[in-house]
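Before any further analysis, we paired sequence with structure tokens, yielding the entry below:
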Amino acid sequence: MQLGPSAIPAVCTFIAFILGMLCLFAGSQKGILDGSADILTIGQASSYGAVSSYGASDPAPELGIYDFYAIHVMSYCEGYFKISDTGAAIRNVTGCSNRTVLFNFDPTDVLSGELNDGVNLSDINWSDAIDDDFEVLSTTTKAMAILYCIGTGATGLAVVAGAWLVFTGGRTQAIAELLLSMLGFIALGTSSAIATVMAMKFVDLINRHGKAIDVSATRGDKFLGMTWAAVGLLLVAILSSLLMVLGGRPAAAPPPADEPAKEPAEE
């Protein structure tokens, strides 16, 4: 089968849909991009060699908490750092929280539930400023997750419309693909912008407020790369669909095969 111009937006929306799904469901359970596609990670500033008053080189296990908490769109994952063969500290994810659309990471609630008996947040000099940062961002993160769901869902429907267009070449299908791609572009673009602000500005706030207690945050560059790649592909799909709709030349359906000539009836 020879593919026409309608295949360009169809392929772009399909790849964007896959990337959107990966961003949406990353960290939903252990093994699903739990260590490489987080929006940001909060944890110990010095993962190894940070001697505490408890006398441990890595105080987190002794306290009952984890070395890091990787925050995703609908969940968070936690674990410890381990030393690789090259001597670098790498993540070892031990588990992830339950997935929920209205997810919001509350560090006080999480840490309080994991600290060993007899240890509380005041013992580790936890900063209330970090809690305030997450509290201010709670509504925004929930809106971000909803927008990711809308954007990914609209992109998935655009994939269906695009596949239909490839095989039928109807103008209606081209318009449907265009509108759905535009909805996906707006929703994923907005949610990507929110995630970028979290990964950039919010990380700076945590690093500033957590410096005194050896708490820092890092942004998820791989996540940002995936989410903005999905937005860029949708833009290409929109422009391609727009050219077909305005030009009035969607891929035409293949003409029906000619009927075989009938033999003249014998007299």
Remarks:
- The helical segments are 7-25, 59-63, 107-114, 128-168, 171-210, 221-247.
- Confidence is low (pLDDT under 50) at residues 47-57, 249-253.
